[in-house]
Every structure is written in structure tokens, then in C-alpha cells.
Specification:
Layout: H1 3-9, E1 12-18, H2 25-35, H3 44-49, H4 56-66, H5 73-89, E2 92-99, H6 101-105, H7 111-129, E3 132-140, H8 145-155, E4 164-168, H9 180-188, E5 192-197, H10 203-213, E6 217-220, H11 228-237, E7 240-243, H12 245-250, H13 262-267, E8 271-274, H14 279-282, H15 286-297, H16 301-313, H17 319-322
Parallel strand pairs: 1-2, 2-3, 3-4, 4-5, 5-6, 6-7, 7-8
The chain binds hypoxanthine (HPA) and zinc ion (ZN).
Residues 18, 21, 56, 63, 168-169, 196, 199, 247, 277-278 line the site of hypoxanthine (HPA).
């Protein structure tokens, strides 16, 4: 069996996927036309050509511009269904989708419109592909904690439809400590907690995410490697890291995939998973992330199996739901 077939056949969960980051330029243009939205690019080709990033912020500027094409419930439904079709083709059996409500509500799109469309796709994906899923609301960390509280207020009537909260957007200068009160409230509501930390930000942000936000997983976390005591702690506590290798290359966190520290983290005993982050922008869905990383870092099939199994174990599904995959 070739490596690509082997990877596809591994049952796996995707735990770090921004649904807005799965908006392919073709769909972006189709939706923009349907909705009468003007995009900053002249064509699909020009859009793809603009995807040359120097850091996280240079990506985020385009990512938020592209998300402007999403207006109606049907748009969010179609976006997520397109993602589930791709994920199914890559052997994903469970997906935990991040969504950024503040990106939409600040443009006048209702919170419920976003949630209704995404949830309808999640329900349909279960029937059509047998994929289970969860929705994780991410707060934009470049906004204030008060703005986060306002968003949480909009989410509270729908809290049973949301499984967790996360923290994304511009990391540097926006440490987890900025959101300590907001996440305390989210924990009181019984939500699962994750946060992006140690993508561009220092290892101290990972420590803050653990101690102040009390995260159950770290999104990215690759800069943990700079702090041996932190690595030791993450190994001891088996805190999962949702690593996104192709994203890290596109955003210049590492110069090339050969330089990526995923194998170093795995060898140290960390609970590493592989994910796609924003596949429409970074040039690969989860299968491509597995394959390119396996080839660049010479990962064995046993290591790939371990990584896929880590993703199932790190997911927010109960033991009964997880058992058939393990
Ligand atoms: N990092 C931070 N915020 C994001 C990302 C990311 O990789 N993708 C979408 N929002
Ligand atoms: Zn991310």
C-alpha cells in the first residue's frame, strides 16, 4: 500500500480547522457574486496569487477580507459541506470546527445565521458521510475582552449547540491573560477550552493558556520546544498539541517542512496531532498535511498511526462514541 493510501485509511479526527479558512477562492467568488459583495481581487487566479504570506498578520488580513463573501445561512452551510466532503475523502471520522462569529457579526451577519448554517452542515455530514462533529467558538484576540463578553452573551441562548471556545487571530501582543475572566465564565458554562498559543507567540503564552485559561488542548504550541520545563509539563500532563505543519511553513514559523519540529516534539513524548488550520489558504487539507510531513520528516507508519490515534483520543467526544475508531 502506498503512503497516501495508508494515510487516507487511518481513522483520524481534525481538531484544528477554521471553517472560514476552508473557503476556496472559487466558492468565495461564487458567493460574492450571489451576494453582491465586492472582493479586493479581480479573479480566482489573482486571489490565489495573493496568497504569499510573510507572517500570521499578513494572512489574517486576507482571511478576513475573503470571509466578507459569507452572508446567509446557506453560505455557511455550503462552506461547511464542502469542507466535510474533502475531510471525508481524507479519512476524517470526526471534526471539531472553529468558527469566528465576531468576523461576521461586525459586518451585520447575525450570530444565529452563522450557527444555523454550520450546524445544518454538521447534521448532514453525520448522515451523508458518517462524520461526527463539534463546533468551537473562537474569540478574536485582537479585540477586547469586553467585546468577547458581548459575543458570549449572543452565544449563551445557543450554548447547548456549541461545545467549546478557543482563542485565535493575532497572537503577539495579545496574551491569554487578556481573556482570563472571559474564559472563567466559559468554564462555568461547561464549555471545553482551547487556545492558540506558541504559534508566533512565546512559550510563556502557552503557560498562561494552561494556568489562566485552563485549556484542555493547545492549538499549534510548536514554540513550546524553546522551554524544556514546559515540554516536560506537556509530556507529563499529556496535553494535546494541534499542530498544523503546512500552515507553519506558509506563515514562516519554520523556513521549510524539513525544519519543522513536529518529530522532535513527538520523540519527546508530546501528544502531537496533525491538522490543516486554513486549508484553502495554506495549500493542503489534512491528508496533504500528513503526507508532506511524513515525507519531509521521514515519519514511520507507526508514528503516523500514533498521530492519528492521538487525534481521536484528544477529541471532545465521549468514550462510547470514540470506541469504534480505536
Ligand atoms: N492562527 C491564529 N488565528 C487564526 C489562524 C491561525 O493559524 N487561522 C485562522 N485564524
Ligand atoms: Zn488556527
Amino acid at each position: 500500500m502506498d503512503l497516501e493510501t495508508y494515510i487516507r485509511a487511518l481513522p483520524k479526527a481534525e481538531l484544528h480547522l477554521h471553517i472560514e479558512g476552508s473557503l476556496e477562492p472559487e466558492m468565495m467568488f461564487a458567493l460574492a457574486q450571489r451576494n453582491g459583495v465586492t472582493l479586493p481581487w479581480s479573479s480566482v487566479e489573482a486571489t490565489r496569487a495573493a496568497y504569499a504570506f510573510s507572517d500570521l498578520q499578513s494572512f489574517l488580513d486576507l482571511y478576513y477580507a475573503g470571509a466578507a463573501a459569507l452572508i446567509h445561512e446557506q453560505d455557511f452551510y455550503e462552506l461547511a459541506m464542502a469542507y466535510f466532503a474533502r475531510a471525508h475523502a481524507d479519512g476524517v471520522v470526526h471534526a471539531e470546527l472553529f468558527f469566528d462569529p465576531q468576523t461576521h457579526t461586525e459586518r451585520g451577519v447575525a450570530f444565529q445565521t452563522v450557527l444555523d448554517g454550520l450546524e445544518r452542515a454538521c447534521d448532514e455530514a453525520r448522515v451523508q458521510y458518517g462524520i461526527s462533529s463539534r463546533l468551537i467558538l473562537c474569540f478574536l484576540r485582537h479585540l477586547s475582552e469586553d467585546e468577547g463578553f458581548a459575543t458570549l452573551e449572543q452565544a449563551v441562548p445557543h450554548v447547548s449547540r456549541i461545545h467549546g471556545v478557543g482563542l485565535d487571530s493575532s497572537e503577539k501582543g495579545h496574551p491569554p491573560s487578556k481573556f482570563a475572566r472571559l474564559f472563567a465564565r466559559c468554564r462555568e458554562l461547561g464549555l471545553h477550552i482551547v487556545a492558540h498559543a506558541g504559534e508566533e507567540g512565546p512559550p510563556a503564552y502557552i503557560v498562561e493558556a494552561l494556568d489562566l485559561l485552563k485549556v484542555e488542548r493547545i492549538d499549534h504550541g510548536v514554540r513550546a520546544a524553546e522551554d524544556p520545563a514546559l515540554v516536560e509539563r506537556l509530556v507529563r500532563e499529556q496535553t494535546p498539541l494541534t499542530v498544523c505543519p503546512l500552515s507553519n511553513i506558509k506563515l514562516c514559523v519554520f523556513p521549510t517542512l524539513q525544519d519543522h519540529n513536529l518529530k522532535q516534539l513527538l520523540d519527546a513524548g508530546l501528544k502531537v496531532t496533525i491538522n490543516s488550520d486554513d486549508p484553502a489558504y495554506f495549500g493542503g487539507y489534512i491528508g496533504q498535511n500528513f503526507l508532506a510531513t511524513a515525507e519531509a520528516l521521514h515519519l514511520s507508519r507507526a508514528e503516523l498511526k500514533r498521530i492519528a490515534r492521538n487525534s481521536l483520543e484528544a477529541s471532545f467526544v465521549g468514550d462510547a462514541e470514540r470506541t469504534p475508531w480505536l
